[in-house]
Amino acid sequence: MQRCDWVNSDPLYINYHDHEWGIPLYDDQKLFEMLNLEGAQAGLSWYTILKKRENYRQAFDGFDPSKVIHYDERKIAELLLNPGIIRNKRKIQAVIDNAHAYHRVVEEFGSFRTYIWGFVDDKPIMNHFSSSEDVPSSTALSLRMSKDLKKRGFKFVGPTICYAYMQAIGMVNDHLTTCFCYPSSTC
Fold first, then answer.
1. How far apart are CA 59 and CA 71, in angstroms?
2. DSSP assigned state of 175
3. Residues that are catalytic
4. What's the pLDDT tens digit per position in 63-96?
5. pTM to 2 decimals?
6. CATH numeric code, 11-173
7. Residue 125: which H helix or E strand, with range?
C-alpha cells in the first residue's frame, strides 16, 4: 500500500496519515486543538508534536477553550515544567491567547467551524500533486487566513502553519496522486 512519502514506519504516524490528515474536520474543539498543535510545531517536525499529542491533551484540559481561557501565571509555570509538551513560554501563552480569540470568533460567527471553513466556502480543495516537492508550504489562501487570524488575536498562525493546518483538517487534500488515499477525502 503506497502512502504519501512523508509518512515514516511508526504506526502512530501511519494511523494519522490514513485516518486524519486531509479528512475534513468540523468539530470546533478539535479544530481548536489542531490549530494549537500546528502552532506548537513551529520550528519542529509534526512527528515530534504527534508523539506528544496525548500529553498536550492532558496538559491543556483536552483543548477545551472554556477551560484554557482561565489559565493564569501559576498554570503557565506548571506547564513550563511539563516534560510531555514543548516547554516554550511563547507557545504556551499562544494557546491561552488563542482561547480568548476563539471565543470572540464563536461569538461573532456562531461557531469556529463556520469561521474557519468559510475560507474555502465549506468545500475542501483537492490538489493533484505527484511529488511532495510540488506541495507548497503556503499559498495565497493560507496567507489570507494567517492575516485574518492574527488580526483577531491568534498567535503562531503564520502562512506556513495555516497551510499545514488546512492540510491537517482537510480544508486542503494534498495526498499525493500515488497515495492510496488519493483522490478520496477518506482512506
1. 11
2. -
3. 16, 38, 46
4. 999 999 999 999 999 999 999 999 999 999 999 9
5. 0.96
6. 1.10.340.30
7. strand 125-126
